[in-house]
Amino acid sequence: MNIESIRKYCLLKKGISEGFPFDDVTLVFKVMGKMFALINIDKMESINLKCEPDVALELRASFPEIVLLGWHMNKKHWNTIKLDDSTDKEFIFKWIDHSYDEVVKTLSKKLLEEFRKL
Q1: How far apart are CA 88 and CA 104, in angstroms?
Q2: What is the distance, to the nearest Å, from the Cα of residue 51 to the centroid of all Cα atoms in its chain?
Q3: Is the dihedral of CA 60, 63, 64, 68 positive or negative?
Q4: How far apart (Å, rounded) are the C-alpha atoms in residues 10 and 100?
Q5: Strand 46-50's sheet: what is its strand order?
Q6: Residue 5, CA distances (Å) to 13, 49, 112 in order
Q7: Residue 15 neighbours by CB under 8 Å, 6+ apart
Q8: What confidence tens digit (pLDDT) does each residue in 35-53 have?
Q9: End-to-end Cα, the chain, rounded Å
Q10: Which DSSP letter does residue 70 get?
Q11: What is the average per-residue pLDDT within 3-15?
Q12: Residue 34: in which H helix or E strand, if any?
């Protein structure tokens, strides 16, 4: 898995922006200004994704070798998923979708209206 495949996948979604708000190596994807994915582009070891809390627990229990507590994030709502040869691309994309959906459903009414107009 490489950064360009993740980047292209994320940028296909509605209301997306990308940037480096924290440093020069942490690429952050946002939907309507709200973070849903973070990845260190230098190391490409993992991706942080938002997750519904109960699903996050299940995911960590089912895949303990690749799904960890969110690194530097709220452990209840974020997972860190390893990006190595054992991690399937479709698995990553599924959880990117979940993260995106989790953020969209928490948008304010104003942002949700703007989002729907895109």
Answers
A1: 25
A2: 8
A3: negative
A4: 9
A5: 16-19, 26-31, 34-40, 46-50, 78-82, 67-69
A6: 13, 16, 27
A7: 31, 32, 104, 114, 115, 118
A8: 999 999 999 999 999 999 9
A9: 29
A10: P
A11: 96
A12: strand 34-40
Q: Which two tokens stand for residue 84?
A: 């190595």
User: Would the pLDDT of 66 be above 90?
Assistant: yes
| Residue pointed to by tokens 């709502």 | 77
| Nearest alpha carbon to residue 40 among 3, 87, 88, 78 | 3
User: Which of 64, 87, 89 minimizes the C-alpha distance to 79?
Assistant: 64
**Residue 86 in this model has a pLDDT that exceeds 90:** no
**What stretches of 49-88 show up as alpha helix (H) in DSSP?**
53-62
Q: How confident is the model at residue 71 (pLDDT cuts 50, 70, 90)?
A: confident
Q: Give the residue carrying structure tokens 């304010």.
A: 108
pLDDT at 74 over 90: no
**Would you state the pLDDT for residue 59?**
96
pLDDT tens for each residue of 19-33: 999 999 999 999 999
Residue 51's φ and ψ, nearest 5 degrees, are -150, 145
Helix (H, G, I), strand (E, B) or coil at 30: strand
